[in-house]
Design goal:
Number of strands: 57
Number of helices: 9
Radius of gyration: 34 Å
Keywords: Cell outer membrane, Membrane, Receptor, Signal, TonB box, Transmembrane, Transmembrane beta strand, Transport
Pfam family, one: CarbopepD_reg_2
Family: Belongs to the TonB-dependent receptor family.
Main location: membrane
CATH architecture of the largest domain: Beta Barrel
Number of domains: 3
Protein name: Putative TonB-dependent outer membrane receptor protein
Oligomer: single chain
């Protein structure tokens, strides 16, 4: 019996010992808060927690553990928090951010002797805070950043965040974030985001920007973390406010040939009929011109009008103007920024040879209702923005319309009285920020023009586009953006001269685009940008149908065309050393012309015409009829000769798979687009540029001189008298040849002081060469000849003088060489008929163009507490009444050839515009 009792006692002791030393536990947590989870752990184990309830997050926990040790369980439930823990005996002590050490690291005393400037403090060393320092200044708050990890081997940590306007909720760009004791700083980007690298420890972070409250925040850095700030506007009475956060960007940026349009500044530039116009201001910059005042296209560095990619919130806009280019179709009140790449084109962009107009609408105000309005002699403009969810989402709507018809009705000319000229455009944008990591933006835009000037035909055209983007920050080094867009352009002509012959003509083109873009900061030397894109083209080349039941015109339609264009791209902004930086990019594009389609083949070495047709090939729906593609290289470099003096060089190669069909000397709204196919090759080009950039007088003056040389291949031109519209076989009417362009651009700019503005001058040449063994496909005997838009000299002076804080004068002077034209130089008789003999193509020029515009700008009073702020603009366009010819044409009258010239604005045009901002 004694032995049995001894055995039982032994088993009880073993059981009690086992229970005492149990180390693995099982738990099921489902939608419970932290405090409940800790109490459940206490009840099931012999451990006791010590903590402050304020430290615990109120979010719910859902987790499952089976036979896990206590450290694993605690690591998992505290993983997404700033809570650390320390276990001693049966006690678990929780801490916020910091780690409790039971002994100091061996290197601790050695680290204390190292100067903080070396930035080599071991990450596992504890951080000691002085409570007295926290109360040294009541205006300085202390914020703990990150969660300490004693096993971390990092020497620096990322402190990042977003700085917003506390009143409006809008991000604050170009704000300095400083850590003076470490001589470190960062600048917020357009989204208010900043990032700064700091070692573990205690630091004082300061903000600095004109017009914004400056604050100091004490941070205790344990690990990577966020510090988001909300700042008040700081209204101060200053003699002059100068914002020069990007004053040295022209010297510092690696890429060449970038023009940035300051949207707010264009209100002081006198323009026709008082309309603020982003694109017209762009033409005052070197290297960007128009064929004439009535042209809807733009020529960039000797390129054709169809060689510019014009984007509105990443969606293509095919015709960005109203009424033949007199007005812009882009609303200045909703526009945020406009960057024009005419030299180094980033690898994410493709499909055009000459330039990219990257225009962004601004985000809507997420904090309060605001808006802007203007009233001019022929147009009105209204923009309103309102929060949907305060500080998270907002909606902006802008609308413009013309009311010029009433002016036409007042004119004495009978033909003009019966004319029509109207347009309108509407844009809306929605932006929503889900978190600091995710936001979405969506834009919808529609514009429409209708006009009939002394004509029996009614012309109309419209743009329709939609775009959406999703931006996501994966971590402090990587962010991605997904873009989806749909663009459509169409025109229509109604002919009403004869009831039996009335008809309607139509055309449309659309494209659907998808792009994913990644930005990755690899390290302090490399910034990577990569992604892929694809777009689907759909083109209705033209259709004709009778207008009215009595019309005898037959229906006719050219078969629809389809094409797909895809690309992969990668670029690296590589900082080789403090002076030399390189941005190298590669883009591989691939294009396919798709069925359903019929494609002719022609005899090799013979002109393409009806007599040389060999066969007609048929392709089924979405079958590839022809494909093209190849690599595109984008390289740009910058070298600092001095801190305010740099030299840059770049090389670009590009493909373009779509062409504009226009045999006019200037582009018009009824020009059509044609996809590359079996018989029309894509355009190709390369361009090299070299420039010097210098800032003077503490960035008050910017100076740049840049030269370029460009060669192109398979550029589209047309045979004399070509019939392009409603032609099923356009390849028989076109020619493809070589092009070259070169030039030098000079820009001197002053943004500060009472007198500011810029002086721009460019010397540029642009030539084509159409050579063939067949005379009908050869122009000017196969030699290079000037393009329609070749204007060697182009000079612009834009200035604004501020007389007082409310009154300023502005002036705009333009001089351009007259563009080339082809003149009749004689006549001859053939078989008893007289014919006109013309000179070589573009052998002569129309008279030079020059114009002076003057304006007076009157600001309302600058009271802060005011319902609305007003602005008056009084301007005179073409003060000198210069009769600048838009075009020159010839008419045979009674056997005599007579020359005429047409002008758009041959007299001074005065304007008064009232603007209101609330």
């Amino acid at each position: 019996m004694k032995k049995v009792f001894t055995i039982l006692l032994f088993l009880v002791c073993v059981l009690a010992y086992t229970q005492e030393k149990k180390t693995n536990w099982s738990f099921e947590f489902e939608n419970i808060n932290f405090e409940t989870a800790l109490l459940e752990i206490e009840n099931k184990t012999n451990y006791k927690f010590y903590f402050l309830k304020d430290w615990l997050d109120q979010k719910q926990i859902t987790a499952s553990f089976k036979d896990e040790n206590l450290e694993t369980i605690l690591d998992e439930i505290f993983k997404e928090t700033t809570i650390n823990y320390f276990i001693r005996d049966q006690r678990i002590i929780l801490t916020q951010n910091s780690v409790i050490y039971n002994k100091l690291p061996e290197s601790f005393y050695r680290n204390q002797s190292i100067s903080s400037e070396t930035n080599t403090q071991e990450a596992s060393a504890p951080i000691f805070t002085d409570d007295q320092s926290k109360s040294a200044s009541n205006s300085i708050t202390t914020v703990k950043i990150g969660k300490a990890n004693k096993n971390s081997n990092k020497t620096t940590y990322s402190v990042s965040g977003v700085v917003k306007n506390k009143t409006t909720g809008e991000p604050i760009p170009n704000l300095g974030v400083l850590v003076k004791e470490k001589n470190l700083s960062a600048i917020t980007d357009d989204n208010g985001f900043y990032e700064i690298k700091l070692p573990a420890g205690i630091f004082l972070i300061e903000t600095s920007a004109l017009g914004v409250q400056s604050i100091k925040t004490r941070v205790v850095v344990y690990n990577d973390g966020e510090l988001n700030l909300q700042l008040q506007e700081d209204h101060q009475l200053l003699d002059e406010v100068v914002v020069n956060a990007e004053a040295d960007k022209n010297v510092e940026k690696v890429i060449t040939g970038v023009t940035k349009i300051e949207i707010e500044g264009i209100k002081n530039i006198p323009l026709v009929l008082g309309e603020r116009d982003i694109l017209k201001v762009a033409t005052t910059m070197p290297g960007i011109t128009k064929t004439g005042e009535g042209s809807s296209g733009y020529n960039v560095r000797g390129g054709k009008e169809d060689q510019n990619l014009i984007l509105l919130d990443n969606a293509v806009i095919y015709n960005p103007v109203h009424f033949f280019g007199i007005f812009s179709a882009l609303n200045p009140f909703t526009s945020g920024e406009a960057n024009i790449y005419k030299g180094s084109i980033p690898s994410q962009f493709g499909g055009r040879l000459s330039s990219v107009f990257d225009i962004k609408t601004r985000d809507a105000n997420t904090n309060k209702v605001s808006g802007e309005a203007s009233l001019g002699p022929v147009t009105g403009n209204l923009m309103i923005e309102t929060p949907i969810v305060k500080e998270k989402s907002a909606l902006m709507v802008g609308a413009r319309a013309s009311y010029s018809d009433w002016i036409l009705k007042k004119l004495e000319e009978e033909n003009l009285k019966n004319s029509e000229a109207t347009f309108y455009d509407v844009i809306t944008k929605y932006n929503h920020r889900f978190s600091e990591k995710d936001n979405i933006k969506a834009t919808a835009y529609f514009s429409k023009d209708r006009f009939s000037i002394t004509s029996d035909s009614l012309y109309s055209y419209n743009n329709l586009l939609f775009s959406a983007e999703w931006n996501h920050n994966y971590n402090d080094k990587t962010e991605g953006s997904l873009y989806v867009s749909q663009s459509n352009y169409e025109f229509n002509i109604e002919y009403n001269e004869n009831e039996n012959r009335d008809f309607e003509l139509g055309y449309d083109i659309s494209e659907t685009d998808l792009k994913y873009l990644m930005n990755h900061n690899l390290n302090s030397k490399h910034d990577l940008q990569y992604g892929l894109s694809g777009k689907l083209y759909s083109v209705l080349p033209g259709n004709q149908k009778p207008l009215g039941d009595d019309s005898i015109v037959e229906r006719f339609s050219v078969p629809r065309e389809k094409g797909i264009e895809t690309a992969l791209f990668l670029s690296d902004n590589f900082e080789i050393n403090d002076k030399f930086s390189l941005e190298a990019g590669l883009r591989y594009s691939w294009y396919a012309f798709l069925g359903e389609t019929q494609q002719r083949t022609y005899e090799n070495g013979k002109p393409k015409n009806e007599e040389t047709v060999v066969d007609t090939l048929n392709y089924g729906n979405n079958e590839i009829a022809k494909n093209y593609g190849g690599p595109e290289f984008r390289v740009s470099s910058r070298y600092f000769l001095k801190p305010d003096l740099s030299v840059k060089a770049s090389f670009n190669s590009t493909y373009q798979y779509i062409h504009m069909l226009s045999n006019n000397t200037t582009v018009s709204p009824i020009d059509t687009w044609k996809l590359s196919d079996l018989n029309i090759k894509p355009q190709k080009a390369w361009m090299a540029s070299l420039g010097v950039y210098k800032n003077f007088d503490e960035n008050t003056y910017e100076l740049s001189i840049e030269g370029y040389y460009k060669k192109s291949k398979d550029i589209l031109d047309f045979k004399v008298g070509a019939e392009l519209f409603l032609n099923e076989h356009v390849e028989t009417e076109v020619l493809q040849g070589l092009g070259k362009a070169y030039g030098v651009e000079f820009l001197l700019k002053k943004d500060e002081g009472r007198l500011n503005g810029w002086v721009g001058y460019s010397y540029s040449r642009s030539f084509f060469k159409l050579d063939s063994q067949h005379a009908e496909e050869r122009v000017n005997n196969g030699a290079y000849f000037p393009s329609n838009y070749d204007k060697p000299h182009n000079f612009n002076l834009v200035s604004n003088y501020r007389l007082t804080k409310r009154y300023s004068f502005s002036a705009n002077f333009v001089y351009q060489t007259g563009r080339p034209v082809t003149f009749p130089v004689g006549e001859y008789e053939y078989q008893d008929a007289k014919y006109v003999y013309y000179s070589n193509r573009n052998q002569y020029r129309i008279p030079d163009y020059f114009r002076l515009d003057l304006g007076l700008n009157i600001e309302g009073n600058h009271k802060i507490k005011k319902l609305a702020h007003s602005f008056w603009n009084i301007s005179v366009y073409n003060v000198l009444g210069r009769n600048n010819p838009y075009s020159v044409f010839f008419v045979t009258d009674s056997g005599e050839i007579k020359a005429y010239k047409s002008s758009i604005f041959a007299i001074p045009v005065p304007t008064i515009t009232y603007n209101l901002k609330f």
